[in-house]
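Readers of this paper often ask what the protein records in our data store actually look like. This encoding replaces a full spatial description with a residue-level series of whole-number codes. For reference, a complete record is included directly beneath this paragraph.
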Amino acid sequence: MVCDMETGVCGPAEDNGIEMINFNQPKKTINLYYVTDPICSHCWALEPVLRRFIEQYGDVFKIQTVMGGLLEKWGDGPIDPANGIFKPADVAGHWREVGEYSRMPIDGSLMIDNPVQSSFPPSRVFKVIQLNHGDELATEYLRRAREELFAFNKNISDDSVLVGIVNSLELNGQAIVGEANQPAGHQLLNEDFALSRSLGVRGFPTIIMMNEENKGVKMVGARPLDYYVDGLKQVLGTEEVQVKQVPLLSSLLKKEKLLFSKEIEVMYDIEKSDVAAFIKKELSPGSYQANEILGEMYYTTN
């Protein structure tokens, strides 16, 4: 230790100048729980915003998709009286309203003539894929299942439909659906139900973001992008958060395989009337197909 009369410092001899110090805290780890269900229409409506949120801010958090158990089975009593849903046929009108409002197309007529009896079978398949093949394939499966249900009017509580969806992922659909129907498959689902209860979830979709101190925010419903960005800032305790550039449309379509017009509009901040011109500018001729369903355009890779 040296005490210097001129500088007034008592300390190590080398500590006698100006030193730059970085007071930035280490990067916080945020856990994002997305509590959802394969037959949740508002979750389907959320997909354009959630995809962009993950693309631009996903480096800041680790996402965990949790199955919430929307419909075990139809009984004699009301399922969702607030929305006027007492029997399967009541779902059709509600779904169509959600589809028209969100512009994520929903047919819904199968709920009249071939209704989904339970959301548990497709949820169990999600859990088996997640366990054995990882989050990425499980997420892709969930997307394919929702496309089949909402846009293409397929009954995803039917084993044969589920087998076809899983086969499209180049997995063994028969084996995976069979495993999902075993008690072990339902136990995986029960674990998600327990997690959902512990998080205090009572509706879908629910997104919970939690920091290392187990403090966070809970957001219920399909909300605009800024809503989730503001929540993320609150959890991080910062006014700014690093934003990634959105991917090129060619890369996004290759990854997602199918995109509806609304999803492209939200990702790239363009109007519906500008989508066709944007597609022609961003994608090479012959690399995609344009189709229409329920008054909405959608695009697939060739």
